[in-house]
Here is the input.
Amino acid sequence: MTAVLDHLAIGTPTLTDGWELFGGVLGGRWVYGMDSPGYWWGQLEFAAGPKIELLTPTGGPDAAFLERFLVARGAGPHHFNFIVTDIRATLARIRALGIEPVGVNLGNPHWKEAFLHPRDAHGIVIQVAQQAGSPRSDTPPAELPAPAAPASFDLVEHHAGDLAGATRLFTEVLDGRLEAAGDGAAELSWPGGKRIRLVREDGLPLGGALHHVRFARADDAFGVQDRERAGLLAKRLGLAVELA
Here is the structure.
């Protein structure tokens, strides 16, 4: 069985901020997106690293999960997505760690999914999904600006009170490769330049929280204007962004 970090999803009531930050400043290219019951989603990809997905509610009973999230905390990181080759084997691994998945839906032949509650996943929702083929792509949204110079989505830093438990989840269940460990941190990687750094921090709500994301450019540094725009837009999205 293989699991690969696919994307970080961000919930927001205002998509324009996300398009400007991740496309106009950080060079994300449109991949695909569409309406789903209760919400709209769209994904951007980078020179390396996981994709970014933006989610916004569109109303009705199926929007309740995202509306609750936005009311409770405002815009911000919503979930990690891992694409797996065998979701039943993944669910068995999850249960072997003493975690009961929620929202298990194996009835769709094109998209089977399950979720881990933040209390079980060290402060953030984790979605595992088995996908058959690529989703149908709508045209890019009109609000998406021309992409800036390409950047790599270089790192996600996530803080957790139980560092050993978080490391076990991301390695034993989600196939992260442990690159380094010690001094209260663990570095994990997946193919395609996808990296999560786990850092121990006590006292966080739900036992953990995404701390920041980092982007880097290979050929040129981010300018002062890029850093100012990124800081403002990231704050509106409830996210801390580091530009390497």
The longest helix spans residues 224-236. The CA atoms of residues 106 and 112 lie 5 Å apart. Residues 1-244 form a domain with the 2,3-Dihydroxybiphenyl 1,2-Dioxygenase; domain 1 fold (CATH 3.10.180.10).
